[in-house]
Amino acid sequence: MSNIPSELKYVTSHEWVRNEGDGTVTVGITEHAQGLLGDMVFVELPEVGETVSTGDDICVAESVKAASDIYAPVTGEIVEVNEELEDSPELVNSDAFGDGWLFKIKLDDAAELDALLDAEGYANSIDED
Amino acid sequence: MTNKTVLHAKHLESGAKMVDFYGWEMPINYGSQIEEHHAVRTDAGMFDVSHMTIVDVQGSDAQTFLRRLVINDVAKLATPGKALYTGMCNEEGGVIDDLIIYYFSETNYRLVVNSATREKDLAWMAKQSEGFDITITERPEFGMIAVQGPEAKAKVANLLTPAEIVAVEGMKPFYGVQVGDLFIATTGYTGEDGYEIIVPDSAAEEFWEKLLKVGVKPCGLGARDTLRLEAGMNLYGLDMDESVSPLAANMAWTISWEPEERHFIGREVLAAQRAAADQPKLVGLVLEEKGVLRSHQRVVTEFGDGEITSGTFSPTLEHSVALARVPRSVKVGDTVEVEMRKKLVKVQVTKPSFVRNGKKVF
Known about the structure:
heterodimer; A: alpha+beta; CATH 2.40.50.100; 6-stranded antiparallel β-sheet; 3-stranded antiparallel β-sheet; 4 helices; 19% helix; globular; B: alpha+beta; Gyrase A, domain 2; Elongation Factor Tu (Ef-tu), domain 3; 2 domains; 6-stranded mixed β-sheet; 6-stranded antiparallel β-barrel; 9 helices
């Protein structure tokens, strides 16, 4: 079983969301997802300043195997992207929950976080895959 | 039902991620397919290819039969152990499979065909063999390990007896020789130096273990695909199938047109296609910007549309490469466009070969 940190929130499409407590969240893809995709070769990140809505495809993670859309887990504005991934996309593989983060969103509505899955809910969702 | 090769337990011991490959549970990688790829380009890696089908064709009509069955001419093979790459076509000139044929004598040949096409290949050969004095014998009691890379031969030598080393010393490319229990061939699917070794099932695990101990890295199907694609080698089912002519799959060089009286299956159709020069062709595509070319993407050219047959990220070149079937008028050096995720992206047309012996070749 993959590592699924209990302090994070999740979406069934395999994004994780960390509440930074300052009105922003950090988003990445789970260890389970990076394992499915295999070695990452390019990550096409959204633009800082872009406004995104929950469910929008805003980022593409391209592995040796496939190109995979990453969806905005919440509505808000992109305030930062992980520029390290430009040269080191493999960080998504080696540290999916840490240095392999993708982007940060300034939340429109913090209540949206309550609708996301907790670790147990996400674990159940990938069992059904 | 899922088949397992004799090395299945070894893969699990090495932490392989297993996937279904046409009914076989095979390793896709042992962690990172890119690291495995680089091991083969710079050192030595090994692949379990025991799922591939070994078929011996023997009997007084063996040569006559094979001269009809495949598009290359086995009569060209004169030195025992010499091998030939070729295609087996249907009457319509479509590729049933690609294969390697080893020659031992005019009454004794060994064929290695794809596992994904095993049943139809065996059925086709059985049907075509009517009236020929031959036996066709599948040899499932063997495992097969491909050891590939610039250090592959030196590492394998550590496992051989002095007599065996003498037997394989100085073997030219595309030869096979039986040394003791092992059939060692200078063939491969990576564009690197190395061997493909057929080993009895009973000795396969021990042989694999010894290769591990001398530092040969286990590599999965993922690396096998990026390596063969960089080398510009076709994969059956993607780059060609029964609906595709060998002339449209960069396999014209595997057809022997001489002598004219040799009536191989598909000859009439292929000769007409050749005369008309109307078949599309398989070329290489190179994308140096971000993005990865993938199978089935549309290729837009001034002469009409084509299609990517295989595409990937090339770990050696650090950008994407692909094989694509395009109208014959498209030339090496042209710029064409590929529809990627709803956008048209410019790519360069090259010969269908990108990396050989660790070096860029286009």
